[in-house]
Design a protein that fits this description.
Layout lengths: L1 H126 L11
Length: 138
Amino acid sequence: MRLENLLYDSDMLDDLDHLSARLAKLVAHTQQLVADQKSLQAQLTQVQTERDALKAKLDLEGSEAKALHKKVDTFASEKASLQGSLDLFKQEHTSLQEQLQSRDQEVNALREATVQARQRIEAVLERLPGASQTEEPR
């Protein structure tokens, strides 16, 4: 019986060695998982920090974009107003040009009428009795 106990003890020791080896592997694997978890947690913290920085930058750029859109709208409104004023000035300019042209035509017509009237008056004066044969200076 004593030999059986030794065999039993030997099998038991083999089982314990096998169990010990498995436990050592399990502990090593657990330690590796803990190290991986810490590494992943550090990466997560870094990514969250980067995300927060990018969100802040995006918010700032969004605010700047809104301000620029307001400026663009203001400039567009001013441009429309100035374009309206320009159109009015162009219409006024065109109207004044037409009036000037009309006045020029009237002046030319009056000059022509003055010349014709002067010619008639001179013709009448020449036909009057006692009119001199020499022309008087104008």
